[in-house]
Amino acid sequence: MRITIQRLSKAYGLLWALREINFALAPGELVALLGPNGAGKTTLLKLIAGLIPPTLGTIDLNGTPFQRANPALREQIGFLAPGGHIYENLTLRENLRFFTALYKQSHDPAAIGIALRNVELLDRADDYASTLSSGMKCRLSIAKWSLLQPGLLLLDEPYGVLDGSGVDLLESFLKAHCQKGNIVIMASHHVSRVLNICNRAMILHRGRLTFNAPRREPWPEFDKAFGEFLPHGELCSS
Amino acid sequence: MVKSVEKTKRGTGILGALAFTAVAVGLYWGLVQAPPDALQGDVQRIMYLHLPSILTAYLSFFLVFIGSCLYLWKREKRDDNLAHSAAELGVLFTALTIVEGSIWGRPTWGVWWTWDARLTLTAILLLIYTGYLMLRSLIDDENRAAVSAAVLGIIGFLDIPLIHMSVYWWRTLHQPPSILRPDKLPWENVDPAMLAALGVNLLAFMLLYFYLLSLRLRLGEVRNEIKSLRLSRGAY
Amino acid sequence: MQLLREAYLLLWKDLVLELRRRESLLTMFFFGTLLLFVFHFAFDLPPDRVADMAPGLLWLAFLFTGTLGLAQLFQAERDNQCLEALLLSPLDRGALFLAKMSLNLILMLLVEIVVIPLFWILFNLDSWNLLPQILAITLLGTLGFCVLGTILAAVTLRARARELLLPLVLFPLMIPVILATIQCLGAVLRAGELGEALPWLRLLIGFDVIFLTVGVLIFDWVIEV
Amino acid sequence: MGPWGFVFLAYGIVWGAILVYLFSLKRRYSCALEELAQLRAAEESNEDAK
C-alpha cells in the first residue's frame, strides 16, 4: 500500500480546516499525527478515509485516485474510532460477524474467537456491546480491524480510553500490521507513546503540515517544531 | 474575464429591454386588442397571464431537474446555482398561477377555490418546490445542501407526471372537467386575435423569465465568488 | 446478487436490533391504534358511512405511523456513528437503501396486519371476505410509501428540524400513492372487486417500480457523507 | 366587482409581484457586488502591505 496526497485542502463553511497538505507514504510506515486541538487531525483522517469530500486536492492509493464510489478502494481503508462504529445491541461476536461479512470475508467462527481472545474479550463474546466500557469497545475495534486487515489503517486518539495492557495490545497489533507492508496513521496527543512506536512523525498546526520526517534518535528538529505550539514544553519527544 | 462580465451584463440589459417591450405589447394585446370571450366575457383575459405563467413554472421545474442532474454528475457549483435559481423562480410563478386561477375562478365558478384538477396540481407543485427551498435552507453544510437538493429536484420532477395523472383521474371521477378540456385543444375555434394575444404574452413571459433567471444566476455567481474570496483570504 | 446479499445482511442486522430494542414497532403499533380511536371521536362515524370513509381513514393512520417509522429509520446508524462505519465499508449503497426500505416496509406491514382487522372490529364492518384483497392493495401502497420515504429520510438526514421537514417534503410527493391506494380500496369495498379502479392499480405499481429503481441508483449520492 | 375588476386585480397582483421580485433581486445583487468590491479592495491593500 502506498499513499500520495497532493494539495489536500478542506474548508468548513468559510474556515479552512486544512490547507495544502502534501505527503507520500511508503509501505510499512507507521505515522504519528500530532498537533494541538483543532489543528485538523481528525479532518485529515476523515478526508483520507473518504468520509468527507475534500474542497481541493487529491488522494492517490496505490496510484489510483481515491474515489469513494470505488468499493475496491474503500475495502482497503480502515478507520478505528475508539468507542464508535459498533452496534450497541449486537453481541461482540455478532458485531464482528456483521463487519467481516460486510467486507465480504468468510466469517470463520474460529477466526473471530481468536481475534476476541487476542484482545482478551473472549469471555464477553456473547454479551451486548452496550455492556462494554469504552476501553473494551476500543479493544473490540482493534479485534475488528485485525480481522479485516486494511491496507491503510487510520486511528483517531486510541490511547485515551485504553489501560496499560490495552495499550500493549494496540501497539503490538500496529507494529505487526505495519510489518506486513500496511500503512498506519495514528492521531494522538500522547506524544511520548506514539513516538516510541512510530517510524515517521507529522505535525499539523492550524491546518498546515508544519513537520514531516522519518524518526531519528535523537531528534532536535522535531523538538523544535513541536515546541512551537507547546511553548511550556510539558511534553517532549524523549 | 472583465470583458466577458461586461458582455453578459450588456446581454442581460438587452434581454431586460426586450422583455419589458414584449410585456407592454402583451398587455396591450391582452387587455385591449383581443376581443372578450363569447362565454366568459372579459374575465377570460386573465387566461393571457395564466397559461404563460404556468408554462414558465413548468420550464423552471424542468431546469431544476437539468441543473440537479448535471450537479450530481459533474459537481459544478454553476449547475447547483441553476437549480436553486430556477426553483426560486418556479415557486414564484407557481404561486402567481394559483392566485390568477383563484381570481379567475371567483367570477367563473363563484368560488375562490375549487378542487379542480389544475388548481390542485399547481398547489401540489407549489408545496413540493417550497419544500425543496426549505430543505436547502435547513442544511448547514453547503455541499450537502446542494447534493440533497439535487436529489429532491430529480425525484420531484420524476413524480410530476404521476401526480398529474393521479390528480386528473381523481377529479374526472367526481365531476366532468370544467372549462379547459384536454380533448379540446386550445387553438380550435378560437378567434385569431385571442390566439395572437396569447402568443404575444407567452413570448413576453419567456423573455421576462430568462431575464429574471439571468439576474438570479448572476446573483448566485457573485455570492459564490464572495465565498471563495473569503475562503482564499481564510482565517489561517 | 451481491446487492441482494448485502441488503439481506443489513436487514438481518436491523431486524435483530429492532427485536432487541423494540423502539419503532411498538410505538408505531400503539400510535396506529390510537389514531383509530381519535378518528372515531373526531368524526363520530355513522355506521352506514364507515365503509365509504374506511380507505381514507386507514391510509391517514398508515401515513402517520409510517412517518413515525421513517423518522426512526436511521436512528440505529446515528448512535455510535455506525453510519460512518457502513459508509467506510465496500458496501453498495443501493443495498443500504433496499435494507432500510424493507425494514420500514416490514414494520408497517406488521402494524397494518393488526390495525386493519382492528378497524373492522371497532367499526363493525362485516366485509371480512374482502380483507385479502385489501391487504394486497395496502401492501402495494405501503411499498410506494416506504420506497420514496426511505429516499427522503436519507435526504433530510442531515437537515436541522428533520423530523418536521420529512413529512413536509414527503407528503406532496406521496399524492399519487395516497390517491391510488384510496381509490383502489374504495372500489374493492364498494363493489367487492377492483373493476374500473384497475388503472389506479397500474399507476401504483408503476410508482413502486419507478422509485424502487431510482432509489437503488441514486442512493449512492443520497447518503454520501 | 365586475369582470374588469377581476382582470385588473389579477394583472395588478401578477405584475406587482414580478416587479417586487425584480427589485429585490436587483437590490440583493447590488449588495453582493458591493461586498465583493470591498473584499477585493481589502485583498489588494493586503497585497500592497506585503
In short:
The complex is a heterotetramer of chains A (238), B (236), C (225) and D (50). Chain A is of the alpha/beta class and 238 residues long. Chain A has helices at residues 41-49, 71-74, 92-102, 109-118, 134-148, 164-179, 191-197, 220-229, and strands at 3-12, 15-25, 30-34, 56-61, 64-65, 77-80, 152-156, 183-187, 200-205, 208-214.
Key phrases:
heterotetramer, B: 236 residues, mainly alpha, Four Helix Bundle (Hemerythrin (Met), subunit A), 6 helices, 81% helix, C: 225 residues
How do the helices and strands line up, and which of them pair or pack?
The complex is a heterotetramer of chains A (238), B (236), C (225) and D (50).
Chain A: E1 3-12, E2 15-25, E3 30-34, H1 41-49, E4 56-61, E5 64-65, H2 71-74, E6 77-80, H3 92-102, H4 109-118, H5 134-148, E7 152-156, H6 164-179, E8 183-187, H7 191-197, E9 200-205, E10 208-214, H8 220-229
Parallel strand pairs in A: 3-8, 3-9, 6-7, 7-8
Antiparallel strand pairs in A: 1-2, 1-4, 4-5, 9-10
Helix pairs in contact in A: 3-4, 3-5, 4-5, 5-6
Chain B: H1 2-33, H2 47-74, H3 77-109, H4 117-138, H5 142-174, H6 192-233
Helix pairs in contact in B: 1-6, 2-3, 2-5, 2-6, 3-4, 3-6, 4-5
Chain C: H1 2-21, H2 24-43, H3 50-73, H4 75-78, H5 82-88, H6 93-122, H7 131-155, H8 162-173, H9 175-191, H10 198-222
Helix pairs in contact in C: 1-6, 2-3, 2-6, 3-6, 3-7, 3-9, 6-7, 6-10, 7-8, 7-9, 7-10, 9-10
Rg of chain A (C-alpha, Å): 18 Å
Cα-to-Cα separation, first versus last residue of chain A:
30 Å
Profile the largest sheet of chain C.
Answer: none
Overall morphology of chain C: globular
Number of strands of chain A: 10
Give the CA-CA distance, first to last residue of chain C. 26 Å
Order of helices and strands of chain A: EEEHEEHEHHHEHEHEEH
CATH homologous superfamily designation of the largest domain in chain A: P-loop containing nucleotide triphosphate hydrolases
Overall outline of chain A: globular
Give the helix/strand class of chain C. Answer: mainly alpha
Quaternary? heterotetramer
Major β-sheet profile of chain A: 6 strands, mixed
Elements of chain C, N to C (H/E): HHHHHHHHHH
Mean pLDDT over the residues of chain A:
86
Question: Under the CATH scheme, which architecture of the largest domain in chain A would be assigned?
Answer: 3-Layer(aba) Sandwich
Count of β-strands of chain C: 0
Which two chains touch over the largest interface?
A: B-C, 31 and 33 residues
